[in-house]
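Ticket 4471: requesting a sanity check on a complex prediction with iron/sulfur cluster. Repro inputs:
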Amino acid sequence: MKVQVDHTSRAHALLSPSSSHRWLNCTPSARLEEPYESTSSAASEEGTVAHELAEHAIEKYLAGEYLPLLDELPVPDEIRNNKYYSSEMEHYVTDYVCYVCDIHELEEGAKMSIERKFDLTTYVPECFGSCDCDIVGETVLNIIDLKYGKGVQVDANGNSQLMMYAIGVLNSLEPAHRAKIEKVRMHIAQVRLGNYSVFEMSARDLTHWAIHVLRPTAEKAWAGQGETKVGNHCKFCKFKAQCRAQKEALVNEFETYGDTKALTLDEIGDILSKSDMFTDWLAAVKTFAMQAATRGEKVKGWKLVEGRSARVINDTETAIERLKAIGLSTEDITNRKLKGIGDLERLVGKKPLAATLDGLIVKPQGLPTLAPESDKREELSPTIDDFDELNS
Ligand code: SF4
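Returned structure tokens:
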């Protein structure tokens, strides 16, 4: 298998498409984040493997060596032996490959490319990138971005990362062909959540956005100018723990309420809707202080101490021997526990597990929980029983 594109490198450009939601909303953030190292996580490494598997399968499809839905997904040995590979990954990547191949087959005469490299420096300084998959038809351009994460649901609507990929791909086409493209359809394929979200724009509106929004905002961000602005784009900002705007936003939120002794339910609802953002920030502040203290720096009013720990048996085999020697049986001293459904699915595959455990996998009703009004779940009418359960 050929050496694949480094999918993680996209995050390293100062004004990368993947962080554009942040620097387009808070222009100084890119420069403020600059001193902080980018760290790789298990989730991003797993995502890289899933991208490589998808790329390999699509290459085989384009070479006429693999037919989605009819053939088994081709998995090279290097990927099968990777610690992140699982039958679950194979299942989700198959979903993605079928999705992109469907689009390709529906657009007659369209040309599909994977990992097309583009140059966005006309609009954004030092910004180069590549797009997971693009399908160029006579008048329609499709851009598909595979998201392997499942932590936060990603919407294609107005998604600046996709719009940057789209303008990058559009500009890399031959001028005569580019002039014919009327529509740009941008897709998010967030396979593990079954979230396939699509956003369409005219090529003219997309170019207008690139010239009148993307370029001037990128110039500001490159220069580190503008006001810091707090919002949901702060979630992954590396500067967050030190960000004064976060502290001010928190303080101002609580200052705006009146002087009655009791908060009303409207006020409490408002606090709750902002609580995730602030608890996230407070957790980042705590981690930042912990890291500083570990480096030997003084955090006013705080010190490093040994944390509490629980007792553990450090040699299980010897412990079992000694317990048996005093007359206890294996059943007396050990627990036998079936692995969780996720682990079993990874072991045998999602569908085979469902067939094997047919009738045994049930989903108990969840306890009532508070969710924002925008949540897709249906609103419950609380009963006395729910109330009792919550208080039991
Ligand atoms: S944490 Fe601060 S610097 Fe980072 S995006 Fe939010 S407001 Fe901007």
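Notes from triage: The two ends are 58 Å apart (CA to CA). Leaving this open until the requester confirms.
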